[in-house]
Amino acid sequence: MNVFFQAVTGIVLLQLLFAVWNAAQLLKLGTAPGTRAEKALPAPASPRALRLSVLIPARNEADNIGDCLSSVLASSTGGIGAEIIVLDDSSTDGTGTIAAAAGGGRVRVLKGRELPEGWLGKSHACAQLAEAASGEWLLFLDADVRLQQGALQAALSAAAAAGGGMITGFPRQITGSWLERLVVPLMVFTIICHLPIPLVRSSRDPRFVAAHGGFILIHRDSYYECGGHEAIRSELVDDMALARAVKRSGGTVTLMDVTEQVFMRMYHNARQVWNGYRKNIYAGIGRRPVLLLAVLIAYLSLYVAPAAAVLYYGLSGQPGALLWPAAALLAGLAVKRTSDAAGRQPFWFCLLLPVSMLCLSLIAVASWRGSRSRAGYEWKGRRYG
């Protein structure tokens, strides 16, 4: 077993070196791509230039939409014109009424059309928002997102520097329940540990993408050149599908660190975490069972087996056998801490890594089983295959 854990330690240490380097490549929102310095926002060349449309699809978001809009309205654009549009997607909890009241006349609330055959709900809502928008840049936000005061101005600075394409980032995640703490931060873990961040922008290969639907800023021309949400209308993981579509159409995708300006609580209990990840994991890896199996074996070997061995050898009174499993475990915790620091998560979250990977594995298996079942997945009152 020593040989196995020596190999695991070596692999995880290499993973740590990559994660540290990769995390350092993330530019903060508002920074010009390809630089390390802030780039000042230029004066608009025309009344429409750099005009921003903030677009929020909302289905049964009565608990979120008011606070979301309050944060958007309080966020400065630095004098650049902006409009805010909410689409009430067949809500049954008064979301539209709350949005209209919270907007105080500064927010346009649209009533969503009936969902057509072949479309998924969020993509259809976003397509309607884009259709109604007049801005040069479209900022899609989820209703559970909250903006800091400088977020919109930072977004516009990034837009001016990029010139076009798509800019996205993973909001800082607020967690409450234990399954949230265990699973939600692993979104950033997968990016920091596996995706070379510079290639997201520099490579034309659509496999090198990362996106979070809670914060997507896209130039109007880039949006329509890639086909917009209509082109991905049946894709379950719509944010990644849109990013790939932008790349395929010749546009650029820039992944930025938005955690200082944008935060959210995606889920509020274990059931929501389970259902949300169950819906997305298998689709997110292209519904490839062999790849899913390979990832699960790798994660369990690298991050769970060392902890199990440390526990076993410690309880059975074999301290001499602890060295390499403990080394592998500590290296894994250091990798997790690197990703948690990038996501602005508490230090102690890294200690949860082995249990986090076990939970993720169970949800991934459930996700695979859901794809093979006629029942599929259910989310916000709609059923997906």
Walk me through what this model shows.
The structure is a single chain. The chain folds into two domains: 2-22 and 274-376, no CATH class; 27-266, Spore Coat Polysaccharide Biosynthesis Protein SpsA, Chain A. 48% of the residues lie in helices and 14% in strands. The protein has 14 helices and 13 strands. It has helices spanning 2-24, 65-74, 95-103, 121-132, 151-162, 178-183, 186-194, 197-202, 220-225, 238-248, 270-284, 289-315, 323-342, 353-372; strands spanning 27-28, 52-58, 82-88, 108-111, 137-141, 145-147, 166-168, 172-173, 215-219, 253-257, 262-264, 377-379, 382-384. The chain is globular and about 70 Å long. InterPro entries: Glyco_trans_2-like (IPR001173), Nucleotide-diphossugar_trans (IPR029044). Keywords: Glycosyltransferase, Membrane, Transferase, Transmembrane, Transmembrane helix. The chain crosses the membrane at residues 290-313, 347-368.
Keywords:
single chain; 385 residues; alpha/beta; Spore Coat Polysaccharide Biosynthesis Protein SpsA, Chain A; 2 domains; eight-stranded mixed sheet; three-stranded mixed sheet
Ranges where pLDDT stays below 50 over 5 or more residues in a row are 36-48
CATH class of the largest domain, please? Alpha Beta
Number of strands: 13
Please count the helical segments: 14
Largest sheet report: 8 strands, mixed
CATH topology type of the largest domain: Spore Coat Polysaccharide Biosynthesis Protein SpsA, Chain A
String of helices and strands: HEEHEHEHEEHEEHHHEHHEEHHHHEE
Instruction: Report the structural category.
Output: alpha/beta
Q: What separation lies between the terminal Cα atoms?
A: 42 Å
Radius of gyration: 22 Å
In which order are the strands of the major sheet placed?
A: 1-10-7-9-5-2-3-4
